[in-house]
Amino acid sequence: MDELAPVIARAVPAGSGVVPHTENGTLNTGPKAEGDAVDPDLTNAGKVSVTELPTAACLVRRRRSSG
After folding, report:
1. 42 belongs to a structural domain
2. CA atoms within 13 Å, Cβ hemisphere of 25
3. Which pLDDT value is given to residue 5?
4. Is residue 25 domain-resident?
């Protein structure tokens, strides 16, 4: 099941308006990374290396302090 998102990202035609994302906050992810494209810091929630498409963005949620 961890491999499903990269498969779908690879199948979506460019310019379709679909914005693929990872479960851990990266918008506009591309297909599974291979070879020189592997970045150990860019993975989906299943720890599968993914690529970024143009206009990719990483979202970070900060916790508020309770004090």
Report:
1. yes
2. 6
3. 65
4. yes
Range of the domain at 18: 4-58
**Residue 37, token pair as written in the block:** 């494209």
Task: Assess contact for 8 and 50: CB atoms under 8 A.
Answer: no
Number of folded domains that form the chain: 1
List residues bridging with 32 in a β-sheet: 50
CB 29 within 8 Å of CB 51: yes
Distances from the Cα of 15 to the Cαs of 30, 46, 53, in angstroms? 13, 27, 11
Instruction: Write out pLDDT tens, residues 17-51.
Output: 877 776 777 788 878 899 999 998 888 878 888 88
Q: How far is CA 27 from the centre of its chain?
A: 6
Residue with tokens 């993975």: 43
Structure tokens at 21: 């994302």
Q: Which residue has the tokens 């693929």?
A: 20
